[in-house]
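User: Run a structure prediction on this.
Assistant: Running it now.
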Amino acid sequence: QVQLVESGGGLVQAGGSLRLSCAASGILFSRATMGWYRQAPGKQRELVATITNGGGTNYADSVKGRFTISRDSAKSTVYLQMNSLKAEDTAVYYCNAFYYPNGMNYWGKGTLVTVSS
């Protein structure tokens, strides 16, 4: 059974920082591209950042220079370091795994990030 468990969300003031973590189980971590997505109230889910097993990264324009995605293969965990947070970063953040052996997308349940202005 595949599980993606996010942690690290919470309430932070604008300009502050948070680090999200996502622990993966039930998959070969090295065979997955990992990512973070977010969904703000009344909006569609959108890409935040992705990272391949080789370390290649991709970021949404809105977070470039502020957010950093990384992964630890030994812990099967992906991180999202979020700095200089803005009110518009408020959303539920979801961990995603695109698993190459079966072409499936897996999702975590999400963690809420609230940035107060």
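The chain has a mean pLDDT of 97.
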